[in-house]
Every structure is written in C-alpha cells, then in structure tokens.
Amino acid sequence: MSIPNYLFPDILLLIFPFIVIGSRLFCSTQSKVPWRIANVGFIAIFILLNLIPLASGEGRLFISNWKIDDFGVLMREVLIISAILGMWLSKDYFEHSGERQQMHQIAEFIGAIAFATFGGFTVVSACDLLTFFLGLEMATIPMYALTAWNKKDQLGSEAATKYILMGSVATAFELFGFSYLYGFAGSLHFSEIQYAISNGTNPLLWVAVLFLFCGIGFKLTLFPFHTWAPDVYEGAPTPVTAVISVTSKATAIAFLVVLVFGPLAPIQEQIAPLIALLAGTTLFVGNLGALKQSRLRRFMAYSSIAQAGYIMVALLGPATMAKTAIIYYLFVYAVSNYLAFFVFGIIGHYREETFASLRGLSKQDVNLAIALAISMFSLAGIPPLAGFFGKFHLFFSGASTGHYAIVAFAVLNNVIALFYYIQLIKSAWVDEPEGNLSPIRLTKRQRNVVILLSVMVVALGILPFLSNNVFAGFSY
Amino acid sequence: MNLLNCLILAFLLFGIGVWGLMRRRHLIGMLISIELMLNAANINFISFAYFTAHDSTAGALFSIFVIAVTACEMAIALAIIVTMYRRHKSLDADQLRELHD
Fold first, then answer.
1. pTM
2. CB contact under 8 A, A186 and B48
3. What does the pLDDT read at residue A55?
C-alpha cells in the first residue's frame, strides 16, 4: 500500500521525536545535535504542511478514520508554530539561567512537546471517538510531565499535582460522556453518531453532551472548571506555561469544533444556549480575575481564560464561518501570546515576573517595551493589530446566527479587558522604577524572535486589507 | 441482569469516585477515586456493547484502550506525587498551598 503524500507531515512528526531523543545517546550532554535535529524536523513539517493544497472540499480519508481537511491542515500549522516557538523560548532555560530556573534534558523536553503536538494532530483528524479520545490524551499527558520538568522547583511539582488531578477528573467526565454517546448511537464513528442524532434525540444524549462539556470545560478552562489554570500557569516553568496556554488550548478548541460541527451538528441549535452561557460566564470571570493580579504569569492565565470565552462565542455561528474565525484567531492568539511570554521570559531571567519589575522598561530597552505594547494591544483587540480582526471575526460569526445578546456582552467585557491590558503597558511605560535596575541583555535568538513576532502581529492585522478576502480560498 | 442495572452500577461507581475525590485528603486516595470514575465509564462501554450497540466490538475495544491510557496517566501521576513526597514527607492534599491568589 502506498502512503499518500498528505500524510507525510503526520508520519514525520511521529518519527522525529524518537530521533531527537535517540540522538542524545550518541552525543555528549552539551552537544547541540538534538537541538539542531529538532529545529530541522519541525521546520520541515511546517513546510510540508504548507505544500498540502487547500480547498479540497470534504477532506481526504485514510483508512476510514483519519481525515485530513482544510480545518485540520490549518490547525496543524497553528500547533506546529506553537511547538516551534515553545522550543525556541525554552532554549535559554537550558543554557545559562539562574539556579532556580535551570532545566535539563532538552532532547526529552522537545520530544514531549512534539508528542503533545501529535496529539493535537490526532484530534483534528479523528473520525471516531476512539481516535479522538487517544488524541486528546496524547495532547494532555506530556503537559503534566512538562509542568513538573524542573524537579528542584517546589512550585512546579505542586502545579503538576494540581494539574494532573484536575486533568484526570476531566478525562473521566469526558469518557463517561463518550460512553453514553456510544450507547445512544451504537457506534463510535462520527458519521453514524451524526446520523443517529439527526433521527431523533433522547435524554441519554443530553446527559452525554453535559458530561462532554464538563470534561472539555476543564481542559479549555471554562467557568466553573477554570480554577486550576492560574495555579498551573504560575507554577510551571515559563516556556511550559506558554506551550500550555497555546497548544493545549488550541487542541481543546479543536476538540469542541470537531464535536460541535461534526457528530453534534444536528443539535447545534439546541446546545447554543449552553455554549453561550459557558462563553459569557467564562469571559466575565476571566476578565474579573485578571483585574486584581500582580504576577505576570497568573495575569496571563486569567487573560487566556477570557480569550477562551471569546473563542467560544464563535462556536454559535455557521460551520464555515466559525471555523475560519477560530483558525484566524488561534494564529493571532498564538503569535501575540508567545510575544508576551518571550518578553516576560527575558525579564524573568533578571527579576521576578511581576508587574512591579516591568517598571522603567521603556527607558531601559525601548524595543522590548514596544514589543510588549504590541502584544498587549493585540490581545486587547485594538485596531490595526491582528487581535482586533480576530475578535471581529469571532463576534461576527456569533452574530450571524442572531445571538446578539452574547456578542454585546462579550464586546462590553472587552472594555474591562482593555483596562487591565493597558495597566500592564502603563507599568512598562509610565511608572518610575524603584532604585537601580539590573541591565537586560538579549541574546541574538531572543532579539530575532521578538522582532519576527512583533512584525507578524502587525502584518496579520494588515493582511486582510491587502487581499480582498483572505479567507476566500478556503472551503471546509 | 439487564442494561439498566449495569448503567446504575456504573453511575453509582462514578458517584462514589466523585465523592471520594472530594472527601479524601490523601493524594493516593484521590488517584484511586479517579480510577473508580474511569472504570465506571468502562463498565458503561462494555454494557452498551453487550446489550444494545450494533457495533459491539468497538465498545469492547474502547475499554481496553482506556485501561492502557489510564496506566500511562497514573504512571506520570505517581511520578509527580513521588517528587511531592520527597519534599514534604507527607501526601496530604492540604499541603498544596504554595500557589494561590
């Protein structure tokens, strides 16, 4: 049997982490070989993904339950970008940081990120519940290990304990939901579940849906299941926090998109109030929580809880529009979030990661302060940056099916969000520092990545103007 | 024995798991409660596969996969808990207090 060429990225991603980890056996501990192999591998996968032609309609099936459609390909690109940036962000922590933050075993670290990414790949290409479940687990289990990577760090192991307890409970809820869904439809395949649902519903289905939303609510940090997120984000090492906030969130969103527009499509109308309720409460709680934070990573946790709420709003819309909006927003979110985490990481090498240590940043290193402002304005959704258009598409998708109340609520909430994002910019630009500041030195890689990401945030915002409709080429 | 009995058994097991998770302050006890919840889902899968589903092999297979995945998850959970134990010399969940608002 010949292997179709659209499967090459997936196969490569499955194989090359083993090569990265294996190469460690033949090199000294200081060797750069695993790092180089990892870079080449991830970038090769990204290039291969870009070579897959889009607009292929229904998508292509491989052995009946591995589907590759446009949504899947674009989600893969988001996940790979997140993995590459996470790897670049983590590199400094393996080299020469302070005693407290020093991490070891870079090859295994990159391997764990790659396996989590492959879990995301599996979620977006699954066509039956079993593959779907395995993908979600594969995306989550490496995250637990990554959180506790720094064995000497007390906060890390505490965060990992909380994460794995909450995550396993989420898995149990989800699995219980899957079992009722299987009982309802009598089959695991998505098309047969969809067929069974369109033939009529019964209470078993609603219980299943409730359990599924509870389960995914934990992973997507929806209210009231969001309480683990601030602790885990604060306790985990900074690069891991960045990976959790992008890869894990993107996978959870992809899970919901596949579920709501796949097997649950016939009852999307009926579950819309549930989605709207979860979205509204989540973004409200996230925004309120972020208002009173003084530590940067905890702040980013609440910010990302609120972002999850905004993304949920798009799920109310019609399939094509919602998928387009979510993909575009995830690109924007990934780039803006990583830009913020790069800046926080650079500052964190020299000081505590709190609002207070941002003071005087504009006088010390104005480029870094500009990058921070760009990322915060983008997350807050100020035109002409990418975040504005991302949010616009999300809200447009929600409004196009007439859910004006939740869209209006989300827009009002954005005003609260603006307040705390601008407060962070204020401490970087306006507030005077206390005493003398330790100097900040950027390595060449850090400088290049920060410039690249800043340009991308601006470019992603301007791009939709240049082409008449940047999404016109896609069909789902 | 019929389907309803099996479903009630699974639901009770799940409930016991949730209750145990809330009541127990010992980390190993909490892990056992989680294991109960996961196995309740397994009973559901197998009973649906046995009684009603027209694709019965899939349901039976699913539970085997769940056991394997749970084993991985528990391996990592135990590894993390061992690092906690080395530091605190106790497995009380109330010691998870360093991270808070």
1. 0.93
2. yes
3. 62
